[in-house]
Design a protein that fits this description.
Layout lengths: L6 H12 L6 H16 L7 H13 L9 H8 L4 E3 L2 E10 L4 E9 L6 E9 L21 H10 L3 E6 L5 E8 L2 E10 L9 E9 L1
Antiparallel strand pairs: 1-2, 2-3, 3-4, 4-8, 5-6, 6-7, 7-8
Helix pairs in contact: 3-4
Protein name: Lipoprotein
Organism: Neisseria dentiae
Amino acid sequence: MKPQLTTITATLLLAACSAPPETGRADSQPANKETVKMSENKTPPTTQREILERMLEMMKTSESIKDFTRERLEQVFGIKMRPHESDADSYVFSKQLTDNWWWEIEKYEDQVEKLDGFRFSFIEAFHNNHKDNEKPDFTEICDMDFDEFVQKVEKLGFTQKPVIVQDGMQMGVYLNKEDLQIEAAPWYYYPKNNPTEKRACIRKISIV
């Protein structure tokens, strides 16, 4: 006599046979998204050269000041900007680079012209033990010097024009591409090992 299948057993067997095979996609897809997300997250630069390389990346992918958004700056530099203490529409990020130098990024709105503005700068760190007229070590912010930076910017399609002040001295360059005009201003110093050779380092980069 052949065994008879009960109604419950037959139902379970039918459900097992008709169930689609597991492909693993449901588990792998979120992992892939997380991997992509993590690969896009950058950490803040730790050297002067790395900082300026991030600036070059920002300039390469921008057509106007409108591309210098808070979100884009945070993404490219791997930073988190905070609202400015005196202006809720402005944002700032600052971090110590060495014992002698800080670097700072500002995204702001010009209160007179009501236009967006951007400024990046290397700032001297204040020390109580500094002597009068004592200058910090400029080599710490001159790994990529002014001339090298400008040459790299020109390779991105920018043209340069000197910034001439009232006494006829050149105080930096304008760098232009499409609707983007950037002003780069230098620090000048004389190396201790060659006091007759004047070198220029990036002091400030702003959009005008």
